[in-house]
Amino acid sequence: MASRSLADRAYAAIKAAVIRCELEPGLAVTEAQLATQFRVGRAAVRAALKRLCQERLVEVALRQRYRIAPITIRHVKELFEVRALLEPSAARSAAGRIDSAHLRRLDELCQARYIVGDAESARAFLQLNTEFHSTIVRACGNDLLAETIVGVLEKIERVHHLGHLLRDRNEQAFHEHHDLVEALVDGDGERAYEITRTQIDSARQFAIDGLLASPSLQTVNIDAGRLRVASPNP
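Above: the chain sequence. Below: its structure as tokens.
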């Protein structure tokens, strides 16, 4: 059995690669391949894959084979539906609760920018964007709600990685984030709620447009009534 530290290290590394689409949606993998790639034992990989399957980032195939969960337009819409139901309420609850240290960090995160077409800057921006929203929801006072939303935010980050941030949304994101921080500072929960809801609507369309326009996509076809988007190397 893998030690907790080794299993946790394998889990963190593999999950990061899945979210960043370094392990591409639809890719078939084995425990042995991942153990070699991430330089950990197979027992640690097995434990990590079990957790990732529970999070629906990886799917079980046949005989110790797995598949990185594909991304479908339907799934993207469902993610944003869940986010729209939960995150605005969490932001409202966070107003007046969030402490000064976290507010300072949010101010720093508002400055995040990316260069269209530059994968490294996009990767950094998306990670900071997830941190921004996660910091707010973790201040809502409901740990279960926060954990659920953070899981959704991580999956949405994965969608954006596949879409490659092909359009410049820097200024829009800055103003949305800055206005939200102001509402939190003022303790204005209703304004925080409305800003978050509007931002989610905008981000939903941005994600879908980016996904469909991404040059990394080679196939878009109808599968069981759903529009399925696969990466070029399944």
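Strands lie at 28-30, 58-60, 65-68, 71-72, 219-223, 226-230.
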